[in-house]
Structures are given as C-alpha cells and as structure tokens.
Amino acid sequence: MDEKIGSNSSDKLACRPPAIREDDRIFLAWQRSHMANERTFLAWSRTSVSLLAFGFVIERLDLFLKYQILLAGGHPHVPQSHEVMFLSLVSFGLAGVLTFISGLRFLRVRRHINMGEPEYSVAPDILVVLSVIVIIIIAIVLSVQRLAHVV
User: Fold this and answer.
1) C-alpha distances in Å from residue 70, one per residue of 56, 77, 78, 136
2) Where are the transmembrane segments (predicted)?
3) What is the mean pLDDT of the chain?
4) Whole-angstrom distance, CA of residue 66 vs CA of residue 83
C-alpha cells in the first residue's frame, strides 16, 4: 500500500490506457467520457447543420422578398444580388469545414480517452467563434451595401 499510482516520475510522462476491466468505477468513468465526446460531436454537427440552414435561408430570402413585392403589385427594382449568394456560399463552406474538423476532433479525443491522455484542444471552439464572427461581418457589410443602393 506504500506505492501510489503515478508517484514515479516515469509514470507521469507515460500515459496508460485505463484499466476498464479491473474496476467498475473506471469502466463507468470511461463510458461517461466517451458519451460526452459523442454528445460534443453531435453538438458540432447540429451547429454545422444550422450554418447550412442559415445559408439556405439567406439564399431564399431574396427570392421571397421579390415575390412578396410582386404580389403586392409593385415592381422589384432590386437587381439580382451576388452578395447574398456569396454569403450563403461562405456559410455552406464554413459548415463543411466545421463538420470535417468536428469529425477529426471526435476521433482525436476518442484516441486520447482510450490512451488515458488528458489532453484536449480548443481549436474547434475558436473555429466556431471565428465562423460566426466572419458571417456576421459579411452580413453587415452586404446589408450596408444593399441599403446604400436602395436609398
């Protein structure tokens, strides 16, 4: 009982896979870690689908507004906007990149859990924040440009 796990300096450097078959508590903790990893992957997937939906809505909103103006008896004098298509394509591209990176992150974290390594990356979190910032900036710039043409 005098020997503690991880008391040796070489034990601290070398990570060992968890002994999931030896203790039920370790097995349950291992399962919880994997389930948390899967939930995180699903959350990233939902975010990617949301970006896809946003791109689709932005693309179709322009057509909807023109149709509503025609129904009201007006003439839509706003020309076809390539900016809206650009914003939706950026949204589609970011959704694809986010899906790919979230899949890589899922596999990497899974490997770390199985190896017993407590190392994780914040890169996907930064990617999502930057993606949202890029989309907001592009939307604001394009909105200001369209309003300048209308007024």
Assistant:
1) 22, 10, 12, 29
2) 41-58, 84-107, 127-148
3) 77
4) 16
**DSSP secondary-structure letter at 76?**
-
Confidence at residue 77, expressed as pLDDT on a 0 to 100 scale: 66
Structure tokens at 51: 């970006």
Tokens 């899974």 belong to residue: 110
pTM of the full predicted structure? 0.64
pLDDT for 42 equals 93
Tell which wins on pLDDT, 127 or 3: 127
Residue 129: closest CA among 59, 47, 49, 52? 47
Identity at 127, one-letter amino acid code: L
Cα dihedral sign, 128-133-47-53:
negative
Position 69: which residue type? I
**Mean pLDDT across the stretch 107-132?**
79
Question: Could you tell me where the DSSP H helices lie in the chain?
Answer: 9-13, 24-71, 82-115, 123-150
